[in-house]
Design brief:
mainly alpha, 275 residues, BPSS1780-like, transmembrane, 77% helix, membrane, globular
Length: 275
């Protein structure tokens, strides 16, 4: 079944509301969303371990389907239903034609990521590998500082970050537009790009707020660990922060789609009292 979707422009404040709704949905089904993230994390590590190289490529390729799976989980939660494993597989069970479109989106996403990574690696010119070798060998601080300030590292990181940001724009809503709107691959990519452009202020605010949340949570963990006299590795603290906030982030993705395309559950559903 194809649903009518109408592109609309929303105020900037909706970028904050998307996060708020994400927290509310997570509170309704914390176990389901948390297990979804943990399962994804464990499967990712297992896939990379069993199939080095190929596993990483497969993991990157399925990310559009992962985001759609969490959108479907939020959709079910709003209907007072419990999402399960089948929820994340449903995008490939709708119709053969839409399944092919979803798989083509995954392939195009992998091609895009490969291009961004390839360009960043070319700009890097091996400077990151040299820095890692110096740190692993325990070289003197001056040598490490010199390698760390190599301008190629900065440009490589900037290229990768901006490239991934640009790539996310056409793929942000594309899987949902194929699933619910029945759009073709090219139309879905174009519609997603147009939606993010028209609502760029809301998405900008949303991104800034997520950045502030991540930074605040990360700093709070380090501060608490210091007050308790615990030695918490910053990398581990950042990983824990990601695991704790990722379920809310993925739960909120559905609302970006709802607002941009006038689709979703009744507008008052989040204000109702849970039974």
């Amino acid at each position: 079944m194809t649903m009518q979707l109408h592109l609309q422009q929303v105020p900037a404040r909706n970028g904050r509301l998307w996060i708020r709704h994400g927290f509310k949905v997570f509170q309704r089904q914390p176990w389901a969303f948390s297990m979804g993230i943990l399962t994804l994390s464990l499967c990712s590590k297992l896939l990379i371990l069993v199939l080095p190289g190929l596993g990483t490529a497969l993991l990157l390729a399925v990310m559009p389907l992962v985001s759609l799976g969490f959108m479907l989980a939020t959709h079910l939660t709003l209907q007072r239903k419990r999402p399960d494993v089948a929820t994340f597989l449903s995008p490939l069970r709708l119709t053969p034609e839409r399944s092919r479109r979803q798989l083509l989106l995954c392939l195009l996403y992998l091609v895009g990521i490969s291009a961004v990574m390839g360009l960043a690696y070319w700009i890097d010119g091996g400077s990151s590998e040299r820095l890692q070798e110096l740190m692993a060998a325990g070289k003197d601080k001056d040598a490490i500082d010199a390698a760390a300030t190599d301008p190629r590292l900065v440009w490589s990181g900037l290229t990768f970050g901006l490239g991934m940001l640009a790539l996310s724009v056409p793929f942000w809503h594309a899987p949902a537009l194929v699933h619910w709107g029945g759009q073709g691959v090219a139309q879905a990519l174009f519609s997603s790009t147009l939606a993010l452009w028209r609502n760029k202020t809301a998405f900008l605010l949303n991104g800034l707020l997520w950045g502030a949340l991540i930074a605040g949570w990360f700093a709070a963990m380090l501060l608490l660990a210091g007050m308790l006299g615990l030695a918490l590795d910053p990398a581990l603290a950042l990983q824990i922060t990601g695991l704790m906030l990722s379920p809310v982030y993925y739960a909120s993705l559905y609302f970006t789609f709802v607002d941009c395309f006038m689709f979703g559950a009744p507008s008052d559903v989040l204000s109702r009292t849970d039974a």
